[in-house]
Amino acid sequence: MSTLQTTSQLETALAPSDYQPAHWGGVLATTLCVFALVASEFMPVSLLTPLATDLRVTEGMAGQGIAISGAFALINSLFISSLAGNMNRKTLLLALTVMMGISGAIIALASTYFTYMLGRALIGVVIGGFWSMSAATAMRLVPTEQVPRALAIFNSGNALAMVIAAPLGAYLGSVIGWRGAFFCLVPVAIIAFVWQWISLPSMHAQKNTQVSGNVFKLFRSRLVTLGMVGVGLFFMGQFMLFTYIRPFLEGVTKADISTVTLVLLVLGVAGFVGTVLIGAVLKRGFYQTLIGIPLLMAVIAISLIALGNWVAAVVALLCVWGLVGTAAPVGWWAWVARTFPNNAEAGGGLMVAVVQLSIALGSTIGGLLFDYSGYQSTFIASAMLLMISAAVIFLTSRSTSSP
Prior knowledge:
The protein contains 17 helices and no strands. The protein is an all-alpha fold. Helix 3 (24-42) packs antiparallel against helix 7, helix 10 packs antiparallel against helix 17 (375-398) and helix 15 packs antiparallel against helix 16.
């Protein structure tokens, strides 16, 4: 999620402006926030089993923590700009950072399932608010010619979190418990707050000079409608399975905590490699790549059911899953740039809403299937959605309409 929002705003945010000094300390402080947010968003994936046991709920119910954070991120990303109004963006960033720390504390101290979900809802508010303004904020920290370098540093926080968040969460959970793992977000938030307070310049709210209108009007285009349905089904299918990887590894593959940590690390490293390599692949076949990724992931989902008891096979399959699944958003943001050459910000905002909704739906439905029908139903449903996604993306590639 995080990779998506940064790229989407690049085209529209680079407007001519007066010279400004480079605030690299602010860029690095923002990068730390990116790391903490991405890590906190997906940390429950590696802690579902102990979390569910302690709160006396099913693993499917514990997985709804990802669904609710995605839902609140969706809502806040659509309305944060109007709600913030003329608030100084530095003040807004600092407020969101404080909320991130409070969320970590609430989850760590949660004695009931309701309290846990409240903390997850709060982190969703932070995620939605932060990503809706993050790229534009980074672009105000450095001169225009240095924006690509700043964004590269900014994205490194997301990449690092995607690599180590799940295995680090599993490791911390085994050493200091799942509560301790979540509580680690509090000192990170404090450090980020102090760093931003010192390094970020005052950033007054700017009025948009281009009116994009209601983003939902973009659905009048067949190309946009098909593309958004395709990406929505893709993320829904992906997170329907990915959210419940740990229960699958422990219950089916019979992996111990050290093996689970290793598998999650391999998955994350493979995802980082895929993100680096996918640019060259997209140049050779753009839509072919976007179609091939969900098809390959569907095959992996079915293969996990058949080979779930074989540790080596599961590790290999999840390695490929991470390689292509984590890299897929890069391709979809390239699609946004191609589809909305004159209105990339509106298209990117719509994409974020669709992706967040899909993550929430995927993890919710996946949890219900996992609890009541077993992991096989969850993985089969994931594979079906991914295959339908590939079909819709094919139709998107055949569409010649424009927004």
